[in-house]
Every structure is written in C-alpha cells, then in structure tokens.
Design a protein that fits this description.
The protein is mostly helical and 152 residues long. The chain has two domains: 62 residues, Rna Polymerase Sigma Factor, Chain: A (Orthogonal Bundle), CATH 1.10.1740; 70 residues, Arc Repressor Mutant, subunit A. 70% of the residues lie in helices and 0% in strands. The longest helix has 23 residues. The protein is globular and about 50 Å long.
Length: 152
C-alpha cells in the first residue's frame, strides 16, 4: 500500500534504484520495529516519511565517507516559470536531481523538497550551516546548468 509513496521519497536521495530500494527496505524495517511508538491520534504518512528521510540521511552519512565531491561551474538561478515546468516531466527532473553528488542531492532534497532550514539540515548531517547553504547553492547551480542544456 505504501510502496510507491516510499519509493518516490527514496529515489530522490539515492544514486540508483537499487540504493533507493535499500533505503526503503531499511525504512520499512524501522517502521515495523518501532510501530509501537506510533501515535494513533496522528496521521501515519508524515511519521513514515520522517523515518524514510532519516534512513536516507543515515545511508548518506554511511556512504559519504567514500564519496568524492565534484567541481561545479557558475550559473544563473534555476528558472521556475510555467513554461519550464510544462516542458520537463517528473522523471527527467528526478534524473537530474539524482545525478547530483550525494552531498548536494541530500541538502537540496532536505531544503527544497522537504522544507527544512539550513540549521536543521546542518544538525541532521553533522555539517556546518555554511556547508549546508553552500551545498544547496551549488546544487541549484548544477541543476540550472542541466536545465539550460536541456532547453537549448
């Protein structure tokens, strides 16, 4: 019942579909392990989403020891006009986000998609607020470069 919902979240944080499945599996295991801690008076999806995001962060932290950061070129701000959003579909945008380095992708997802503040992201990932802001800015630049090429 929640497979598609969980997979849509995990795919934004993972490099590959297999990695997303691993994160999702970890999330389901935590849900089943801690189901007794779920407050029945509250909605299930936000609780489940939080668990999946934490699993993605745990996976990122585990894998970040082995990753290398890529250099990023300077670019304009990402376009958000209606024409752009009508010409690119979800799968294409997802592929662009998934192509970001794990550090950039994680901060981008947490800030732009999930709505966390940089202070919260810094605490979750064990990085400085400045690093969170820098990674977000560079992720936006990288995505803009890709969108610019895509629309040319």
């Amino acid at each position: 019942m929640f497979y598609s919902y969980a997979m849509s979240i995990c795919l934004r944080y993972a490099d590959t579909r297999e990695e997303a499945l691993e994160v999702m599996n970890d999330g389901f295991m935590k849900v089943f392990k801690h189901l007794d801690k779920f407050d029945l008076s509250k909605p299930f999806k936000p609780w489940f989403r939080r668990i999946l995001i934490n699993c993605a962060i745990d996976h990122f932290n585990k894998e970040s020891k082995h990753s290398h950061h890529k250099d990023i070129e300077t670019a304009l701000l990402i376009s958000t006009d209606d024409q752009t959003m009508n010409e690119i579909n979800y799968e294409e945008m997802l592929l662009m986000v998934r192509d970001l380095s794990p550090a950039y992708r994680t901060v981008f997802n947490l800030h732009a998609i999930e709505g966390y503040k940089h202070e919260e992201i810094a605490k979750m990932l064990g990085i400085s607020v400045g690093t969170s802001k820098s990674n977000y800015f560079k992720a936006r630049q990288k995505l803009q470069d890709r969108l610019k090429v895509y629309f040319e």
